Amino acid sequence: MNKSVIIIGAGLGGLATALRLSYKGYQVTLVEKESTPGGRLNVLKKDGFTFDTGPSFFSMGYEFKELFQSIGEPIPFELNELDPLYTVNIAGSDRVFKIYKDLAKLAEEFRGLEDNFEAKAKKYLVGAKEIFHDTEYRIIKKNFNSILHFLASMATVPVKHLPKMFRTFWEELERHFDSEEVKIIFSLVAFFLGATPFNTPSVYNLLNYTELQHDGYWNVKGGMYKIVDGILGLLEKKGVTLILNTEIVSVEHNNGKMTAATSSTGQRFEADLFVVNADAAWFRGKFLKRSKYTPEKLDKLEWTLAPFTIYLGVKGKIDGIQHHNYFLGNNFRAYADTIFRSSVAPEKPYYYVNVASKSNPECAPEGCENLFILCPVPDLRVKPDWSDADKLVNEIVEDLGSRVGYDIKNNILTQVVYTPKEWEKMFNLYRGSGLGLAHGLNQIGAFRPSNKDEKLNNLYYVGASTTPGTGLPIVVIGSKLITERIENEHSAI
Ligand SMILES: Cc1cc2nc3c(=O)[nH]c(=O)nc-3n(C[C@H](O)[C@H](O)[C@H](O)COP(=O)(O)OP(=O)(O)OC[C@H]3O[C@@H](n4cnc5c(N)ncnc54)[C@H](O)[C@@H]3O)c2cc1C
Prior knowledge:
Elements: E1 4-8, H1 12-23, E2 27-31, E3 43-46, E4 49-52, H2 62-70, E5 79-81, E6 86-90, E7 96-99, H3 103-109, H4 117-140, H5 147-154, H6 163-166, H7 169-176, H8 180-186, H9 206-214, E8 218-220, H10 225-237, E9 241-243, E10 248-254, E11 257-263, E12 268-270, E13 273-276, H11 280-286, H12 295-300, E14 306-315, E15 324-328, H13 332-339, E16 351-354, E17 368-377, H14 389-404, E18 412-418, H15 420-427, E19 459-461, H16 472-489
Parallel strand pairs: 1-2, 1-13, 2-9, 6-15, 13-19
Antiparallel strand pairs: 3-4, 5-8, 6-7, 10-11, 11-12, 14-17, 14-18, 15-16, 16-17
Bound molecules: flavin-adenine dinucleotide.
């Protein structure tokens, strides 16, 4: 009999791992607490509207291509490259910046704000490109067995990048650009890492290279959930069992091996190997009682912001908005300084709006738009009470309506809101943190919870809070890394 694998959680990490392992001959069962697979990459259908609930685009689209190539299957969904990548609206300015990969076109967007933009951007991106390619295989796409192993790998990164460890993301931008608008727009990616551009190391400017030059941004024709549908079709072909509505609440282990996982209804799952797709830090504390991951210690770690998400079905077509849009205020530094620490909902919130119906008309009834609004907010350590959620919803809906010149408020046909509390409950996201553990230099590589358990020889982890980190393509890379580990340590037969 081929080896059996139980995967706890059917988020993208669990699904991609199930795909790779099942094609290599392992007998895979996925156990998911929710009623639909996909985790944060999920779908919400209501009153004729379809919303992607979480991710709406991604960089490094080639990682998805690699996933399907590695199992010898054609990619089961259609990738769309974003052009422009997104738009940015800054309060008080009547300009809407369209962010293009084509630097000549992008220079036009910054005309009158940044002289010689194109030449400056090219120079800036050379440094960002070098650091990306110098770390991709040494740090990101690599398994580490110890801190020493990690540090040895770090030591092979060319020393010319060393000063970037000591500068911030913002300081790097200041070395290249004068315009506040350019610096603000180029620093937005820092927030995804779990910090602000004012305290994120400048090495992460490499993300602007991945966005603006390397591979751009992608989404999926028909909506992001087509990724999950596509993977599910292939898993079915391979006989993978998917068990939904089943939450694992305890585990058993013996002699350095995990032996079983048990659900809240008492269902017991035994297997040769286990993969945890739930948060890798939280799981170790909650179920394995590891002293390094008690709630007190987890609370001391750096976590990414929590999502406050609004899904609106709106009557009418809104011309003043594109598919991917950021709406920012005019107090960037002050906002960045308080957003991780404030126990009250942001007064003049910064938010992202995705209107999938702009590119996928089937996501909304005719003559309507589906709006997905994401406002990053402090996690539940800082703001545990969301009884004031309606106030934030109203503030955003009013602000958005006035900025796009459309009476959204009085044309809402359907509305759903998830506060960080719902996000925490749905997917066991620690303190509601949306992207999991942050990516400061002390929480990456061997300093991040490992994808191989420290004590149990047949237990592995995949997903946002283990290595290499968060975001769809990075989680897909994570599934490749643990598949390599599992194959090396426990062959399928
Ligand atoms: C609002 C939002 C927007 C985002 N936007 C983007 C974006 O545009 N681009 C991008 O690249 N990334 C984005 N991300 C990040 C991206 O969604 C994540 O990095 C990625 O989906 C994480 O996948 P995962 O498999 O690690 O975890 P998850 O998706 O959280 O999957 C884990 C699964 O495990 C299940 N589970 C947990 N505990 C148990 C248990 N005890 N028993 C059984 N099942 C359990 C959960 O229910 C869940 O289904 C976004 C995230 C959020 C929240």
